[in-house]
Amino acid sequence: xxxxxxxxxxxxxxxxxxxxxxxxxxxxxxxxxxxxxxxxxxxxxxxxxxxxxxxxxxxxxxxxxxxxxxxxxxxxxxxxxxxxxxxxxxxxxxxxxxxxxxxxxxxxxxxxxxxxxxxxxxxxxxxxxxxxxxxxxxxxxxxxxxxxxxxxxxxxxxxxxxxxxxxxxxxxxxxxxxxxxxxxxxxxxxxxxxxxxxxxxxxxxxxxxxxxxxxxxxxxxxxxxxxxxxxxxxxxxxxxxxxxxxxxxxxxxxxxxxxxxxxxxxxxxxxxxxxxxxxxxxxxxxxxx
Length: 289
What we know:
This protein has 289 residues and is of the alpha+beta class. The chain has helices at 21-31, 43-52, 102-116, 131-139, 174-177, 191-197, 239-251, 265-273; strands at residues 12-14, 61-65, 68-77, 85-93, 121-127, 143-153, 165-169, 201-208, 211-219, 224-230, 255-261, 277-288. Helices cover 27% and strands 32% of the residues. It has a twelve-stranded mixed sheet, sandwiched between helices. The radius of gyration is 21 Å and the shape is elongated. It comes from Chitinophaga eiseniae. It holds the Pfam family Acetyltransf_1.
């Protein structure tokens, strides 16, 4: 018996304003069912991700077969009313529609629209071993900006500073905390995303000698560290170790952090010394339009 499979080619590209969160999460999970890193998003987790990263249906793209969503690009914006930057917070093609260069086709159709709307740049991250995706983005005009490293594990802190006081703060002073950073955080780790994610994400501040000496921000459900920073004048005094130990004890479980710029090896060294091992790397890519 001979079976003949006919590929259905998708040419209907439109935004995702008509798609429910349930449809988006179902399509997302289908597209990522064989991904390098296992991923499964419930509708509520996807809603949380969309809120934090400011992913907007009207700026996102879908490839449709009738009402069947076969591929998607989820875009976030850097401003609600007059955005100039889009962030690709997730691209997926379901198995039934692969091999059609849908990523390139979707961007080819929508980039002129984005240009007319005032968009000047699109950002994304892609795992360095995901060669098909890298090729698709490169063919769409994207180029590499930075290399990020990602870490996970159970924090094992051997030395802390007993003079440091840790307090959770509901209103982080980001104007101050941003001065503690040695690298520009990736989209999902920046202050705007952290503020949108509150209260699921919490921030703890370290105080030493009556001054703000550092902070750590963590997504409490996943125990993913969004950001950690130490005042330049208080470094090498156990601030980061004390913060990490406090949060690890409070949240009780393995932790992770993604998108540490390779140009900041001291942060990577601290994480590995603290029990969080490297598990993958990503490229940050961009296209200027």
